[in-house]
Amino acid sequence: MFPVKHPPGRFVEVDGQRLHVYVRGDGPPIVLCGGLGSNWFDWQDTVDILAADHRVVVLDRPGFGLSDPLPTGAAPTVRGEADRIIAVLDELDITETAVVVGHSIAGFYTEAVARMYPSRIRGVLLLDSSADSDPRRIIPASVRVRAAHLISAALSRTGVQRLLGPHVRRVLNQAIPPNGTPQETLDWVDEIYRRPSYLTAALVEDLVYPDLVDELERIRTRFELDVPVTVAVAHTGRPSPWGARWIRTQRRLAEYLRADFTVVAPAHHHAMIDKPVEVAALITELV
Fold first, then answer.
1. Beta-strand pair 10-14/29-33
2. In a 10 Å sphere around its CB, with 0-12 CB exposed, 13-18 middle and 19+ buried, how is residue 142 labelled?
3. Distance of CA 115 to the CA centre of its chain
4. pTM higher than 0.90 for the full model?
5. What is the pLDDT of residues 36-95, one digit of tens each?
6. Edge-to-edge strands of the sheet including 10-14?
7. Farthest-apart Cα atoms in the chain, separation
């Protein structure tokens, strides 16, 4: 198994938490933020391309990758994650405006950071971003967060997570790198997806999704979006009612944000793994 004591990247401290960041290259800065349960290695091929001419930063949120666990009872917020992106840039002494990329649920965070900190952001790529303006909430957030911790503890204590963690990842993430998955990445998957802190962070972020949607809507009413935005939707290329509906949803998001719109195909949800060249090209158009 790949030795955790020699991780790639570096660690920075933000609000008393040690965060893992993977930093490569020199030039105009680009910040890559993965979706629910994503880790720095999901961006590896894209980073390899971008790092030739840019300073690329991949941020592991608390509980994911090699960052410290999510604090007990805590849950991510849109504003908190936007602030975290800026804090990481400050810790890395990056003052030049950055392009931020938000995949899936991280699209909420990158849109928010562009609205709240326009002087720090050059452009935004929303990559197969979450898009929902009418969440349904019945159970209070505090109860959902507590339930996530209890479920995670039970699955870890019984050994279910350790047994099935990496297999669940292969089911949920069907993207395949153009040159195959390197052994180093497979080793990290076996290590990280078996960690109780990883499961906790993923469950918590998933269960507070409605609250994140509601918070982003409030941010949208308070802060304008004055930077270039591209909405990129992933599509497998196979016709299906779900695929057509998802493209319509993403197109409406682009219209609402007055953003450019494009389709990355054939690609699964983790398009940065399937199509790193195409995703890198979309990013550099914003630099």
1. unpaired
2. exposed
3. 18
4. yes
5. 999 999 999 999 999 999 999 999 999 999 999 999 889 999 999 999 999 999 999 999
6. 10-14, 17-24, 55-59, 29-33, 98-103, 121-127, 229-234, 260-264
7. 49
